[in-house]
Specification:
The structure holds two protein chains of two kinds. Chain A is mostly beta strands. Chain A is built from no helices and nine strands.
Chain lengths: 114, 113
């Protein structure tokens, strides 16, 4: 799986957009970018994923650069409850034993301040 | 629909004891896995299963056994607990195809003394 690089921590003011970057310069053509978050003491929560097009759902937007070497997770109006560790993960699609695995790095601790 | 249920939530073991961490899902997910998370670290994969009767090792399998006799259940067994196994354990499941996100349980906090 491609390795990802994320800043260890970021701050954001409540109500403002939080933009979390992720570098995945060695990503392969068929690997997807996934984002998860983990609120303190809870299990990780799936947020969004994408291949090469920008994606949006009720939680966030995912912007992937044209060369796919980096991406940005956007929380449009951050709240205090969005304070969490955010993980960027890349992995190939489809079935097959090793393709199911998620490799978590240390992620980015996003702190939303009042 | 309860999602992924882990029991117990907390457990204290003595060194050398054995125990089973339970994980059950009611979403008919094919894939299930166990992770451990140590302070300041990301999650590390212990074992995973792509369907009933099929299991495989992850990054840190030593000291743990798994079996998958049904689609719903994926128990993790600690054979002889060691202090190094003090950790928070998470179970996760998903549909077979990797386009879908994983659903994680709320975790089991294990302390081995």
């Amino acid at each position: 799986d491609a390795k990802t690089t994320q800043p260890p921590s970021m701050d954001c003011a409540e109500g403002r957009a939080a933009n979390l970057p992720c570098n995945h310069s060695t990503i392969s053509g068929n690997e997807y970018v996934y984002w998860y978050r983990q609120i303190h003491s809870q299990g990780p929560q799936y947020i969004i994923h994408g291949l090469k097009n920008n994606e949006t759902n009720e939680m966030a937007s995912l912007i992937i650069t044209e060369d796919r070497k980096s991406s940005t997770l956007i929380l449009p109006h951050a709240t205090l409850r969005d304070t969490a560790v955010y993980y960027c993960i890349v992995r190939p699609p489809g079935s097959g034993g090793s393709n199911y695995k998620l490799t978590f790095g240390k992620g980015t601790l996003l702190t939303v301040n009042p | 629909n309860a999602g992924v249920t882990q029991t117990p939530k907390f457990q204290v073991l003595k060194t050398g004891q054995s125990m089973t961490l339970q994980c059950a899902q009611d979403m008919n997910h094919e894939y299930m896995s166990w992770y451990r998370q140590d302070p300041g670290m990301g999650l590390r994969l212990i074992h995973y299963s792509v369907g009933a009767g099929i299991t495989d090792q992850g990054e840190v399998p030593n000291g743990y056994n798994v079996s998958r006799s049904t689609t719903e259940d994926f128990p993790l067994r600690l054979l002889s607990a060691a202090p190094s196994q003090t950790s928070v354990y998470f179970c996760a499941s998903s549909y077979g195809r990797a386009f879908y996100g994983y659903t994680f349980g709320s975790g089991t906090r294990l302390t081995v003394v």
